[in-house]
Amino acid sequence: MTKVKHLKRCRICNGKNLTKIVKLSKMPFTDEFMTFKNIGKEFLHDINVFLCKDCQVVQTQHDVEVNKYYLDYQYSVAHSKIANKFMCLLANNINSFYFKKISKKSILEVGSGDGKQLHQFKKIGFDVLGYEPSKILSDIANKNKIKTINGLFTKDSLNLFKAQKKYFDVILLTYTFDHLPNPGEFLDISKKLLKKNGILVVEVHDLDKISKNNEFCLFEHEHSIYLNKSSATKFLRKYDLDIINFNLIEEKYRRANSLIFVAKRKVDVNVQKKELLPKNKTSKFYFDLKKNIYKGIRNLEKYSSFNKKIGKRVAGYGAGGRGVMTLASMSNSKNFKFLIEKNPKSQNIYAPGSGLQIVNLEHLKENPVDEILVFSFGYMDEIKKDLKKYGYQNNQIKSFIDIMKDGYV
Ligand SMILES: [Zn+2]
């Protein structure tokens, strides 16, 4: 059984001044894909999102002891061109901005996956080390000569590295920091593992962009906190870390909703630039966030009902977190014919929550649809190109963001 532990205090400041800003009922894990016979047995639990009025960090107040019955699927090592370009830029920019003149440099990546990102650093001369909780992924990385420790990064890791006198020029986390149940403890540990001029580089989902694009699907059981520039700045300061850069990578090369920050151990306050001290969000920001989320779900439901009524066959595209969570939040997601994914993790699998079948592009040959609603909109251009090969024109392909915003009439 999957256990849920409820917290009663802020994850960051331990305060009790928490207020609920969003509730999504009965939501699944984003990646607990099922076989047909397991539909209805998946983990479902409300996702409540809170704001700590003391430290301004938006967060969940439940931790899920992960015990999913994962399908025994083959891990796909396919990465899109966009993802590869990003990884390459991340390594090159960190190097040219901060370590150009240093010949011996090292990086530790926490949540390093299959080692693809570290490979980019290795190519340009970094000594690389990964830390990865998944056995399958760390095995892949090690096989590809990216040295990776299989395990969770904890205080024990700190002791281990300290005993070996191992310190790093860069500690990197991409979309891992906001999964940690206790991100403050992580900052405390990693700060102690940075060399004197070392940097901590973190990529998380940006709450401001989540709000702007109404991407409530990013409110997941797996995420513990949701930062923006101002709450991240304040949070890191608590741990004597100063954010020195929010523009490591140009916006156009990033994944949607990305917030990347580079932090150093405390630097002189006078050196900080003004733009690095953003203001707190007003209560209107949180009110609008909630209002737009509920309106977005209603618009998607109307879109789905309307198409069903006029006999239009609609499929979803993108079985990532966005697709899975958005569909799970809708009361009528069953109206979709199926959910298309370029590289499905397995054959004959179904999305948790909605129970929709995940199919590959080939499936469209025998089962054509009239319209495709894209959830993974960050890859829209690639998707349109792929769908064209199956006879779909641009006007048959819609982004779920637009439907949520404008409704469907
Ligand atoms: Zn707090």
Going across the major beta sheet, what is the strand order? 8-7-6-9-10-13-12
- Determine the CATH topology of the largest domain: Rossmann fold
Poorly predicted regions = 69-77
Biggest pleated sheet: 7 strands, mixed
Helix content: 25-40%
By DSSP (H or I, 4+ residues per run), the number of helices equals 12
Rg, rounded, reads 22 Å
C-alpha end-to-end distance: 44 Å
User: How does the helix and strand content classify structurally?
Assistant: alpha/beta
Label the overall shape: globular
CATH class of the largest domain: Alpha Beta
* Ligand roster: zinc ion
What is the CATH H-level superfamily of the largest domain?
Vaccinia Virus protein VP39
Please tell me about this protein's structure:
The chain has 12 helices and 19 strands. It has about 400 residues and is α/β, with parallel strands linked by helices. It folds into 2 domains: about 200 residues, Vaccinia Virus protein VP39 (Rossmann fold, 3-Layer(aba) Sandwich); about 120 residues, 3-Layer(aba) Sandwich (Rossmann fold), CATH 3.40.50.720. A 7-stranded mixed sheet has the order 8-7-6-9-10-13-12, with helices on both faces. A hairpin with a 5-residue loop joins strand 3 and strand 4. The longest helix has 27 residues. Zinc ion binds next to loops.
